[in-house]
Amino acid sequence: MTPPARGPATSTTTTSPTVAVAVAVRKSIPQHAPVPRSLSTRTLPFAAAAAAAAVLALPAPAQARPGPEPSSAAAPAPCVSGEGPESRTRNNSVDEGEIRWSDGTVYDDARAFAVSAEGWSYRGARIAILPDTAVTSDDLAFVDYNGGTSANAPLGSYQWRPAFGATDRVRFNRQKLNARPYDTRDFRRFVALHEIGHALGLCHKATTVVSLMWKAAPSTPVTWVPDTDKANYRTLWGSQ
Ligand SMILES: [Zn+2]
Description:
By secondary structure, this protein is an alpha/beta fold. The chain has helices at residues 19-28, 44-57, 108-115, 174-177, 185-199, 227-237, and strands at residues 98-104, 128-131, 140-145, 156-159, 168-173. It has a single domain (19-58, 72-237), classed as Collagenase (Catalytic Domain) (3-Layer(aba) Sandwich), CATH 3.40.390.10.
């Protein structure tokens, strides 16, 4: 199965074992670009969304707790042009209602925060996000890599690997996450949340909505699951 195109491939994809794999993976890797220098000159919707994000950040809990399904007043948002639609069978790491993950990253705080985020980790959640064990299959590996330091190098990436037995990956670009301005707890948590969003099947969203899933990182990292993303999750997987 060939992953769908995910927009223009970038030149920052790392080398893969074979040409065929490289092409497939390249197309399936949604990547971050850091905030462009022209950010302050962006259009009003972007500024409005950023302002809303800053407000919404205030009541966000520092750590997710088990609880009832969170409420969401927002409608689901469409994928950006060239992506989607969101699908239960493509571009996600869900296997029989679970994502079993393994830990190969040094960014443990970000990983732990993302897998237990209140927006998709709650009592009765449709998709369980749990550590891999000896008797489960490893659906998603958290790993670190050197993804470059250039202005358009990704902060992290998600690799959907649909081949039978292949483990999908959330990859943290240590060259970015160990350098300013991304070497903070909150930026690392944001990157982890965004990539888990992909693992749950979410595509990139326009900056006209408050979402974890903007293609480029916001200037203020989003460290919770916004209502729009909860709505997309529910639309894709059901609420209970
Ligand atoms: Zn992405």
